[in-house]
Each structure stands twice: as structure tokens, then as C-alpha cells.
Amino acid sequence: DGSTPDMQVRTTCPYCGVGCGVVMKPDPTAPHGWRAQGDPAHPANFGRLCSKGSALGETIGPEGRLLHPVVDGRRATWDAALDRIAAGFRDTIAQYGPDSVAFYLSGQILTEDYYVANKLAKGFLGTANVDTNSRLCMASSVAGHKRAFGSDTVPGAYEDLDEADLLVLVGSNAAWCHPILWQRMQANRLRRGARIVVIDPRATATTDGIDLHLAIAPGTDALLFEGLLVHLAEAGRHDRAFVETHTNGLADAFAAAFARAGTIETVAAGTGLKAAEVATFFHLVAETERTVTLYSQGVNQSHQGVDKVAAILNVHLATGRIGRPGMGPFSLTGQPNAMGGREVGGLANQLAAHMDFTPEAIDRVGRFWGATAMAGKPGLKAVDLFQAVEAGTVRALWIMGTNPAVSLPEADRVRAALGRLDLLVVSEVIGSNDTLGAGLSGPAHVRLPAAAWGEKNGTVTNSERRISRQRPFRPLPGEARPDWWALAEVGRRLGHGQAFAFADAAAVYREHAALSAFENGGARDFDLGAHAHLDRAGYDALEPVQWPLPAGARRGRARLFDDGRFFTPDGRARFQVPGEPALAARPDADAPLLLNTGRIRDQWHTMTRTGLSPTLGRHLPEPFVEVHPADAAWFGLTDGGLARLSNRHGAAVLRVVVAPGQRRGSVFAPIHWSDDNAGQARIGALVAAVTDPISGQPESKATPVAIAPV
Ligand code: SF4
Question: Which residues pair with 248 in a beta bridge?
């Protein structure tokens, strides 16, 4: 995996799930010698970049990099560090069994990294304790897709956003979080007159100037869509032929919806909306066949996220508006490679290549890998995994490319739990963060210097199932190495040299593609058989392509389910009955406000990269909390003053922004800042570790908190 320093390089943005193509051009006037431009040939962005992508050249400097392995606080060689990991994992398994070791990965790492981690754990260590921060991102969509479609399939493509007549965004601030897709939606609006509805408790940049903003009460989205299901039947918009031929279960879903949300007045009362607003929304959807419903973290990050997804999918199945141009449900992925991670089994409840832990799949994957210790059951999901660390049942943990001491719910507990591990391995590009612990005396026993964006070589998959290459254009600094290589070296040290003898990232990708097609891969949605023999030159030249891509296919498929065939055993989609909408915890005298968390326009996750850009830092330079003016007056807060947010899980001190668009009774705070970069500012410390019972995704949008001036 070398570099190509003398020429421009086509690569893919490392931030959000839009997955924009980037051209990095040498430029002696740029801060680090490289300037980022949009790739005009990439079908996600056609040459455009948002503020974060445009500033990529500012973020590739050497500041703060971890440049050599560290073992027990001392500089070490790679050999010593890898020997220590292999011995630690071997001894832990010998003493406590395979489920005492775990991996916690990231939607930031590449598909090739994910593949090798998954193979090592599930095929050679005998544990499925491989989870990822994608659990916090879109696990509810994964579960919703699988329940309805029989597979984790995004049915549509970005071109549907260009061709829709109505775009409904649910729980999404796309103008800040998926800016290039938002630009495509705006272009559709200007060019074709598409209308835009946003369903979000708070006013955001995305609600500016749109056709309808439904400032819904937190946690009631499913009720709104159940009401819509009823209204569409009354308006004669259910597609009876599609429902009868291609689905099961509408009668039960409809009966439940009718009982809970049978009239517009009932829906209005339950969602806190005006009846006229509800009626306008229902009418718009009824009259607009080409409707795309886009949903993001406001739906997924919920203790009822799977129910919310189900209520949205039910509407599209009932109307047959799925898999056809300009219509369908569309999950907006948060991270750049949450999709690619899932494709190789990056979630603890998946095996590999979209296979589950069925006896047939365990046997098939085990034979393909030549596995010596196949995991036989799903592993621990993220929140459960760290509770197992706290309880002492997980004793060796390898964290890669993520900062759970900031980002996981009840982050104080998570940070404390890390100190209990017999072996904590952290693969990182930087030398200091809350998970590593400040300075060399922190809890990480082994710190591995990871290759960063611009140095790594591999693939990512964006929200529309499009695989794109991340290509290196900088040499690896110091002793930094790709994550897949470190994982393979540990596999080799554990006696599995043949299974982990990957010459390069292309070899990893080729094996991943071959596994997806092994023994009738086409029976599943995810099939990359056309790449099973891709050589290094083909890999290097790979153009962005959507899966499925079975053997012999020359082009990917923009849409699935257009033929009405789903991946359930009988080929029919399944309506689901959502549970009764309810908050996980209600505000009370001790914690009278609901905390909603999210992103801002110009920062990414815990700011490891975006925090290096002076341009991006000018947007919103410090951690803040948005408060409705009436709440600010009630709690004695002033705009620009400091406030302390607290509850029984933790506390944070943030700048007050009095915002009329904030919903009364709720406050909003961004996720990016941490104790490492901004004092007491880890908002994850306040979020309760309450999860959806099916997806395991935490409720990050409605945690009761107290607020007081500082
Ligand atoms: Fe990167 Fe997302 Fe911005 Fe595209 S929209 S440039 S992928 S952050």
C-alpha cells in the first residue's frame, strides 16, 4: 500500500454516509500541500463537496499523531506490541473462554479492516463479540429492513431524490448532516418543484424555507405514520395488487394503526401537532405517488427505533411505492462505512456477507474460511458489550477507530469500565483522547498507530449501496500501519498464518467478494461475485459501483424490489405492528427537560480530524446547549452564559444558546466535544444506556436532564 505523491488522486470523503468522491490535488500553497476538490465523475456528488469535505486538506497534518506502538506506557516495536496482543487474547480465552474477548470497531474504518477483524473473531477466536459504533448509527434501520424485507437492503438510489415529487425527511437535519444530498433535494425543488416536508421536534437549517415542518413531540413518529397508513387506505391509495401479490401482514398492521391512530384528531393529539398540519401532510402523501421518505438518527437513535422504521416501511409497502424511480423509504447512513461494515458482518448479530447465525451459514462460512473456532451464536451489542466489560465478563478488548469514552451512553461508566480490563488495545491515529486516557499512564495497555485517511487503501460503502475506493496519497507517517494488517499479524501469531496471509488490501477485498458469492450468494441481497477475482490493477482502478454485483454483472443495480421479490423465505415483504409509542423515561422534578443530541455542520464525531481545521473551527467554536426562550427564562439562563446539564448519569458544562426553534421542554446539545478537547463537555455522559430491544441501538434523543446556570 504505497503512495502516489506526484499526481492527483481520486478518493472518497471520510465523513458522512453520502460518500462523496474527492480529488486530492497537489498544491504547494495549501497548508499541507494538498487541496480537496469534488470528484466530478462520482455519482454521489458530481463534483460538489460540503464544508467538511472542502477542508480535508487542512486536516492531514502531523499534529497529535500517534506514530509508534506503545505498550504499558513505553514505546515499543510492532513485534512486541503484536506479540503482547496475541498472547493476551490467547491467555484470556484459555482462562475465561472465547466470549471473554471482544472487538469494538468503527464506521470510520474500511471494509477490508472490518473483514479481517470479523474473520479473526468469528472464525478463529470463536466469539461473535465484534460490534461497532454503527450500533449507535443505524442498527434500527438494519433490524427494520430485515424484518420487513428479509434482508438489510436499502431499496433505492440517490437518483430517486432527484426524481421524487415529495421528499419527507424524518428525524434528519440533512442540511448539516448530509449536505450534498440536501443540495440534490434542493435542486430537485428548484428544477422540478418537488415539495419537502421535515418531521423534527426542533427547527433546524433543514426546516428553513421548506413546504411543511411538523414539529412533532419526541417519540411519536410511529403514531404519525400509523395515522398515515390509515389515511392512505381511506384515500384509496393502498396498492391492493402489490399488497396481495408481494406482502404479508397488512391486516394486522392496519388494525393496530386504526385502533391507535384512526382519525386525524387522534394523531394530532398524540403527536402534539395541529390537526390541520397532520391533514396537510397526509393529503400531500396521498396525492404524490413519487414520494421518498428519508430517515436518519431521529428515527434510529430511539428505544423504539425499529418500530419507527417499521411504521415508515409499512406506508411504502402498502402503497407499493418502493423500488421504483422517485419513490421508496431511504435510510440516511450517518457514517462513511456503516454499510461496508455490515457487509462483512461488522455487527455482533451478523455473521458475514449479510448472513445470520443459522446452522447452514455457520457451516458455509466456516468451510470458506477454513475456520478453527467458529462462533456459534450472536455476540454482545455495543451497550451490552461495555456493560460486560464493567461486569468483568469481557476481559480483553480491541478498540479501533472510535472513542467510546465519549460517544457511548453513560460514558462515565464506560470510561471507568475500560480501566478494569486485563488487556485494552486501542488502534488510533492520534496520541490522546478520552479513550486512550490522557498521557502515557492512561488505561490503554497497547496503543497501535493506525494509518489515517489519505494514507489508507481500501473501500467504503455509502447510503445508496455504492462501493467507492479510498486511495492513499500520503506516505504512512512514522510507524503507522493499516488496521487490517495489524489484525492479520495477530491472526498469524495465533497460528493461522495461511488464513491471514493477505498480501495487500486488494487481497482482502477479493476474499470478501468471493465469500459473498460462495455457494449461491445470489440467494441473498449482498452478492459481490463480479469482484471475486479482481486483481490489484482492477482494484486500484475500481470505479464507484452499487451492489448487488453478482458474477458476470458489469453494472450494479440502482434499485431492488422493483420486481416485488423480497429476501424472505416466501419472497413476500412483511408488514410489522409497531408497539405503543412511549418515552423511555419521562421528565420529572429532578430532570425536567429532555436532552436531544446530534451533530453540527462543520464537525465530525469527536473532532479527531475536523478539529484540526481552522476553517471548520470558525463555524461553532465551542460546546453549547440550545434552550427555548421560555425554558431559559424559567431556569434563569441567559444567552451566551454557561449552564450545567446533569442527571444521575453525568454532567456537562455548556454555553447557552437561546433558540426560538428549540422545542419547549427539550434542549439540544452536540456530540462532538469531550473532556479531552473542551473541559467537561462529554454529552454522552448524560445519555441513558436505554436501548431498542431488537436493534440494541441506544435512545440518544430523549434523556431527562436538569439544567442550571453556572
Ligand atoms: Fe463528505 Fe458528507 Fe460532506 Fe460529502 S456530504 S463532502 S461525504 S461530509
Answer: 574
d(CA 374, CA 119): 9
> What is the CA(18)–ligand 1 centre distance, in A?
6
* Fold designation for 70-134+339-460+473-500: Rossmann fold (3.40.50)
Which homologous superfamily does the CATH classification assign to the domain defined by 139-332? Answer: Dimethylsulfoxide Reductase, domain 2 (3.40.228.10)
CA of 530 to the centre of ligand 1 (A): 28
Decide whether any atom of ligand 1 lies within 6 Å of the 23 Cβ. Answer: no
* Residue 480 CB–ligand 1 contact under 6 Å: no
Among 666, 640, 676, 675, CA closest to 655:
640
pLDDT digits (tens, 9 = 90+) for 569-578: 999 999 999 9
Q: Does the Cβ of 53 fall within 6 Å of ligand 1?
A: yes
Please report the atom of ligand 1 found closest to the CA of residue 336.
7
Confidence check: pLDDT of 531 > 80: yes
Distances (CA, A) of 514 to 143, 544, 554: 25, 19, 16
Does this model's pTM top 0.95?
Answer: yes
Domain 593-709, CATH among 2.60.40.10, 3.40.50.720, 2.40.40.20, 2.60.40.3710: 2.40.40.20
Q: From CA 132, how far away is CA 484, in angstroms rounded?
A: 15
User: What are the domain boundaries of the chain?
Assistant: 9-59, 70-134+339-460+473-500, 139-332, 593-709
**Interface pTM (ipTM) of the complex?**
1.00
Q: What is the pLDDT of residues 187-226, one digit of tens each?
A: 999 999 999 999 999 999 999 999 999 999 999 999 999 9
Ligand 1 within 6 A of CB of 180? yes
For residue 19 and ligand 1, the question of a CB distance below 6 A is answered with yes
Evaluate whether 108 touches 14 at the Cβ level (below 8 Å).
yes
**Half-sphere exposure at residue 261, Cβ-oriented, CA atoms within 13 angstroms:** 33
- For ligand 1, what atom is nearest to the CA of residue 51? 3
Atom of ligand 1 nearest to the CA of 462: 7
Return d(Cα 273, Cα 99) in angstroms, integer: 48
Name the residue with the closest Cα to ligand 1, atom 4: 20
- To test ligand 1's pocket by mutation, which of 39, 42, 48, 52 has the most ligand atoms within 8 angstroms of CB? 52
249 C-beta neighbours (distance < 10 Å), count: 17
